[in-house]
Amino acid sequence: MGTKIFVNLPVRDLPASMAFYRALGFSFNPHFSDETAACLVISDDNYVMLLTHEKFQGFSGAPIPDARSSTGLMIAIALAGKAEVDQMAKTAVAAGGGEPRPAMDMGFMYTRTISDPDGHRWEPFWMDPAAIPQG
Predict the structure, then answer these.
(1) pLDDT over 90 at 118, yes or no
(2) Three-class SS of residue 77?
(3) CA-CA distance, 18 to 27, in Å (whole number)?
(4) Predicted TM-score (pTM) of this structure
């Protein structure tokens, strides 16, 4: 097995979180999901484990911060173009998420910040490597 990434996120309402991410077009791996956890599939090598607070606490042992009032993590996700970035942001807001800051267009990169119902921040972005300023 090659290197895979599993990001663990605590969620207050697992079914509501799953519905939010399904609205964004993601699927779940049922082999790693139950009533306390859901394995959100980003790609063949990248996953997000949505964990109930109780389950997350069992792994962490540390207090769970409120992602709606503080940011300890932002997950950037590369998309195929600006239109896909805009569509994900529009869908996220319609599905109960938020957009805590406006879009940023740097010419070579376009990004938006969205939040899920628990406040976890995602940054869908598009980048044109050929247009990155040299120097």
Answers:
(1) yes
(2) strand
(3) 9
(4) 0.91
